[in-house]
Amino acid sequence: MNPDDLLKNMESLTRKFQEQGEEISEESLQSYLEEVSQSLNQVFDLVQLELDRGLEKIEEAKDCLLSEGLEDDARMVGGVSDHLSFAKQQLEIGQEVASQKRDLELCPTEIERERLLTPNVLRNLVELARAIPL
């Protein structure tokens, strides 16, 4: 997807959501946020692709400078490459943190009572109660 398509997609999602007005349900909000999240992931993927391409071109330029005997210029270009590599790492870390945060938000915050006494847990409690002499 190119940047213009991503922008149109985000605008379309926002318009669709705004059209619901006062009738916004939790499910529609969750759906909207998931779609926005997917679009943002596509933006991040596009940025990473562009960073990779840029790094590749910088390395090619650095090699050309070295082959021409311009070591000082090649060293300066190498510094730019280092900064872009660092930016790419930070982007990847940000994506990973965001992904983990989303996963945590999907986990239930409270344990449902009916999940506490599953058949296995209940059977183990009964066996334990029988084994302990009173």
Please give the structural blueprint.
Layout: H1 3-19, H2 26-67, H3 71-106, H4 113-116, H5 119-131
Helix pairs in contact: 1-2, 2-3
Q: Work out the count of structural domains.
A: 1
Shape: flat
Cα(first) to Cα(last) distance is 70 Å
Strand content: under 5%
Element pattern in H and E: HHHHH
Mean pLDDT across residues:
77
Helices, by number, come to: 5
Number of strands: 0
Radius of gyration: 27 Å
What does this structure look like?
This protein has 134 residues and is mostly helical. It has one domain (3-131). The protein has five helices and no strands. The relative contact order is 0.06. The mean pLDDT is 77.
Q: Which descriptors would you attach to this protein?
A:
flat; 134 residues; mainly alpha
Report a brief summary of the structure.
This protein is mostly helical. It has helices spanning 3-19, 26-67, 71-106, 113-116, 119-131.
